[in-house]
Amino acid sequence: MNNVFVYCELEGTTVADVSLELLTKGRKLANQLNCQLEAIVAGKGLDGVEKQVLPYGVDKLHIFDAPGLFPYTSLPHSSILINLFKEEKPQICLMGATVIGRDLGPRVSSALTSGLTADCTSLEIGNHEDKKAGITYENLLYQIRPAFGGNIVATIINPEHRPQMATVREGVMKKEILDTHYKGKVEKHDVAKYVQETDYVVKVIDRHVEKAKHNLKGAPIVVAGGYGVGSKENFDLLFDLAKELHAEVGASRAAVDAGFCDHDRQIGQTGLTVRPKLYIACGISGQIQHIAGMQDAGIIISINNDENAPINTIADYVINGTVEEVLPKMIKYYKQNTK
Ligand SMILES: Cc1cc2nc3c(=O)[nH]c(=O)nc-3n(C[C@H](O)[C@H](O)[C@H](O)COP(=O)(O)OP(=O)(O)OC[C@H]3O[C@@H](n4cnc5c(N)ncnc54)[C@H](O)[C@@H]3O)c2cc1C
């Protein structure tokens, strides 16, 4: 009762990275709240799925295994969460800010009148004093995210309603195994008790999943370009440097909007979050929405023709110059020095 729950997304029988990241965060929140961490998986053919989940410090895994539960459709998964939460009364529920999480989260929170904060960038535990009502609420979930176009960072709370629900994008939290032999309980539920036959009204006839064209999220080096790169052709310089460094190419939203680079390479608040060892920002000014997706990089190099560009304040090294003059030199000297 009143535990922290994480809904684990599945691709086939593999738990999504974003869910493992949230289990890691959920474990920390549960420790602070002195309660248990519980996880939910719903899919088909889930024998052994606990091996993927329990090592993240999960005290109890709820398994819903039935042919109609994969691929994901809205109604059966919503019914599972709504009915399980009516029994278990969690204080917190976390899920990925993915296509599935964005569909499932609002349905569940609306049915339970609980409230939901989407796309949180940080989750913390803290108190809140309602001075007007003279009430102090203890151990609330601070659901922290940029608001008003990123101009402020808002801390959102649900003092009265439970569960406190939040979605988080992939890559925002770090995933970390707690103990490979962590002893958690596994409960296999009778799916028919939670899902009605009519919930299976939508049948997925054909499903096409496109493979990611790059590995930006896991790349140790990212060469990212902004509007200052100037053109799609100039972006080729970034690809050339990336090839030499065995890096991946990322982009700011302005560069994506200008058509210099594909959307799936966008880094930032509404794109990917990356944590490479080295981030080379080329012609990127460093607005807060971009920084949100790369500020945890180990070393940041900024190449910019404006020495006062905001990104320079968080960069470890600043190269003052244009992308067109600096990148060809970097490629040339890197090649020379690694011969
Ligand atoms: C709700 C919301 C969400 C957003 N989400 C994102 C997001 O996920 N990711 C994101 O990136 N942005 C996001 N943005 C947009 C963000 O506010 C900025 O507009 C964007 O990051 C700016 O991109 P930029 O730095 O490439 O362009 P600019 O701000 O135009 O900066 C270009 C930089 O290039 C430099 N420059 C110009 N010419 C050269 C040259 N030849 N060589 C070297 N340097 C040069 C300039 O000095 C400047 O510093 C979001 C905005 C909103 C409102």
From TrEMBL:
Family: Belongs to the ETF alpha-subunit/FixB family.
Cross-referenced Gene3D superfamilies: HUPs, TPP-binding domain
Cofactor(s) listed in the protein's UniProt record: FAD
InterPro entries given in the database record: DHS-like_NAD/FAD-binding_dom, ETF_a/b_N, ETF_a/FixB, ETF_alpha_N, ETF_asu_C, Rossmann-like_a/b/a_fold
Keywords recorded for this protein, A-Z: Electron transport, FAD, Flavoprotein, Transport
Lineage, top ranks: Bacteria, Pseudomonadati, Bacteroidota, Bacteroidia, Bacteroidales
Species this chain originates from: Parabacteroides chinchillae
Binding positions (FAD): 252-253, 266-270, 283-290, 304
Textual note on the cofactor: Binds 1 FAD per dimer.
One function term, GO molecular function aspect: flavin adenine dinucleotide binding
Electron transfer flavoprotein alpha/beta-subunit N-terminal domain mapped to chain residues: 4-204
Protein name, as recorded: Electron transfer flavoprotein alpha subunit apoprotein
Family matches, as SUPFAM superfamilies: Adenine nucleotide alpha hydrolases-like, DHS-like NAD/FAD-binding domain
GO biological processes: fatty acid beta-oxidation using acyl-CoA dehydrogenase
